[in-house]
Design goal:
By secondary structure, the protein is mainly alpha-helical. The chain is built from 24 helices and no strands.
């Protein structure tokens, strides 16, 4: 094989990979955000999950990209592990579309695609049209690269060392390993399958030997998701285990079937003489069949992932989850006898949410008083958890309201709605206070000793009112009166601190920026008191204490 052939092979490979990257980038730019929204809103319906996973992967031309998105959603708590299973199954089906496109053999008109796509990118200013141009150009460049690789590989058909290497792929283990390693290196099963099709079209590998390489390629594509899961929560790591398990199980099944049955010959006869089409059809058959076989066992794949990577107690607490409130079934049979249990779970979850808000208010004041920017990340992470609980508790409460017929329970449910909303807003004010910390650092703002003392007093007053809210309202009217007094005290202190603040301004003890920040802080302080009062009123109305058992 000459140097010209080697350069042609490398150049063709470069164009092939670049064309695929162009096409994927254009497709994702055109519709990527919508795809992410679809994934975020996905329900637990397994068939819908498979369809969505397949459709998205068919569009962005990469099962790895879809799996990486899923890893991110699971890590963020936006998708459960069981939902991820169906997306991954669908992604494996969607990734076969590239092989089918290649099998169409449109290489002769590839330059036209490339020219048309580049023309749209260069001469049309509308972003959406440019994205379409990028897709078309990428497709053209991809096929041009394939043609270059095919031409460069022709001499390999008569090159003894290469022929000897290809014949070894008849050994299933060698073929699977080779496909796995090669795909892991280039991090794209679509690309590696396309290269395999080019090798087959050049006559350097038979269809019978290529099927084992093909199976290994499905395992190798998981490497991208594995890399994406590094440094994530355990739930995200389990997503990659599911992806690996799916492809390993499929590879075992199809290897055994191909060795014991004439499946390879059947696919070859069905596909005709075009070996590229044969490989594409086997790839599609592999993923569709494996999905059909494993759909009934999807939840078991999730359980297997948990068994392989069990959850640690401290990690479980950190991971976003409902601790006391179980799934609420809106069926009438399920509601009867379980309403009280759901209400108790909701009460405990709200108490948990309130504890987080209290912690955030305390931490935010600490960050502000001590200019501790390191505490900001802790507050923001806990705020994300508060938002999650607000959403999930509200969703469960909505389901309870549909079928609840007991008047007292209905009143409690309505109160819980109001409580979660107010707690969430308290969390927002805590984040506001944290944000002021960055202003202090960026603008080198300082406060007088008197101002710092007042900030510390604000923090202590907030702590006291949170503790008051957590007390048991044995006598709701009397207890609510004490809550009102606490909120009035916050209002009184807000006015007092504001007057003191004005006096410091008159004396020139603080600059303009410090004045603005302190005024904003007072507003957040006063609003936290308002929301705590709202929570107290709802508690008194429902006569429920918020005490975690």
């Amino acid at each position: 094989m000459s140097a010209t052939n080697i350069l042609g092979l490398l150049g063709g490979l470069a164009l092939f990979l670049y064309g695929m990257q162009m096409m994927s980038s254009g497709l994702e730019s055109a519709a990527g955000n919508k795809m992410k929204e679809i994934l975020e809103r996905l329900t637990s319906n397994r068939f819908l999950g498979v369809i969505v996973g397949a459709a998205i992967t068919a569009v962005i031309q990469s099962s790895s990209a879809t799996t990486v998105m899923v890893v991110g959603f699971v890590n963020a708590g936006m998708m459960s592990l069981n939902q991820a299973v169906w997306i991954i199954m669908g992604a494996n089906i969607g990734t076969t579309i590239t092989g089918q496109l290649i099998a169409l053999d449109v290489g002769a008109i590839a330059p036209i695609f490339a020219f048309l796509g580049v023309a749209l990118i260069m001469f049309v200013k509308k972003p959406k049209i440019q994205y379409v141009g990028e897709i078309i150009a990428g497709l053209g460049v991809l096929f041009i690269g394939m043609n270059m690789m095919g031409d460069a590989m022709i001499p390999l058909r008569d090159y003894p060392p290469f022929i000897n290497l290809m014949t070894r792929f008849s050994n299933p283990a060698v073929g699977i390993f080779a496909g796995m390693i090669f795909t892991a290196i280039i991090q794209s099963s679509s690309a590696s399958v396309g290269i395999l099709q080019t090798l087959a079209l050049s006559g350097v590998i038979s269809f019978r030997n290529s099927v084992f390489v093909l199976f290994g390629q499905n395992i190798g594509t998981c490497i991208t998701a594995v890399l994406a899961a590094i440094g994530t929560e355990r739930s995200a790591k389990r997503t990659t285990i599911i992806h690996l398990s799916f492809n390993i199980i499929g590879t075992i099944i199809f290897t055994v079937v191909c060795l014991t049955t004439p499946l390879t010959d059947i696919v070859a006869d069905f596909s005709g003489a075009n070996i590229s089409k044969q490989i594409a059809n086997m790839h599609t058959l592999f993923n569709i069949t494996t999905t059909i076989l494993l759909i009934p066992f999807g939840n078991y794949l999730a359980k297997l992932a948990v068994m392989i990577l069990p959850e640690k107690a401290e990690e479980k607490e950190k991971q976003k989850h409902l601790k006391y409130l179980k799934s609420v079934d809106t069926g009438m049979d399920a509601v009867i006898g379980t309403s009280a249990m759901h209400l108790e779970g909701a009460r405990k979850e709200i108490a948990r949410m309130l504890d987080m808000a209290k912690m955030n208010v305390d931490r935010s004041f600490h960050a502000f008083i001590h200019a501790d920017t390191a505490a900001i990340a802790d507050v923001e992470e806990r705020e994300s958890y508060i938002d999650y609980l607000n959403k999930e508790i509200s969703r469960a409460i909505s389901k309870m309201m549909i079928h609840e017929t007991n008047e007292k329970n209905s009143k409690n449910i309505g109160s819980y709605f109001e409580m979660t909303g107010n707690i969430e807003r308290i969390g927002d004010h805590a984040v506001n206070i944290c944000d002021y910390t960055n202003l202090l650092k960026d603008n080198q703002i300082t406060f007088s000793k008197d101002a710092i003392q007042e900030m510390q007093e604000m923090r202590d007053i907030c702590r006291q009112m949170f503790d008051r809210i957590k007390e048991a309202p044995e006598n709701p009217k009397e207890w609510l009166q004490t809550v009102h007094e606490s909120e009035n005290f916050i209002d009184k202190k807000t006015d007092e601190f504001y007057e003191n603040h004005l006096e410091r301004i008159r004396k020139g003890q603080c600059n303009d920026e410090a004045c603005v920040v302190f005024s904003e802080l007072l507003t957040d302080f006063e609003r936290i008191g308002d929301h705590l009062l709202n929570i107290g009123e709802e508690m008194a109305e429902s006569s429920n204490k918020l005490e975690v058992a």
